[in-house]
Fold:
Amino acid sequence: MKFYFWSVGKANEPYVNEGIKIFTKRISHYYPVEWKIFPPAKNAASLSNDQVKATESSLILNALQNDDILIALDENGKQWSSVELAGFIQQKANASAKNIIFLIGGAYGLHENILKRCNHKWSLSKLVFPHQLVRLILAEQIYRACTIIRNEKYHHD
Structure:
């Protein structure tokens, strides 16, 4: 199984990038992991919010394979505890899932056609975070889930 972390937006700021690199390296001890940053829609200022989301979604949908498990990070998604996330990952590993893609939308969120395609919607919190911090939180939580699965000391109940 391989993790893909996809995000729409700009490259990471240095203050976030260092943490993302650390947790990505840690995750790679458990599963292969790869980041893909999709560029925001061009001419976004002249487009409606829905047009921006539609433009971004076409890039994402074209990059997906039919058997990819897509988890959209969405404010209306289900909130999981770290232990529940670990259970979800273990379940997918047991089912021999090939690719799990965690998707962070752009500034205006994810288009309806992405939300229809996703297998799960996950909300990190009811709080709103900058997208770059969401990338860091995502990487840390996936690492935490890996340590929970292995019963390692990183996570404390």
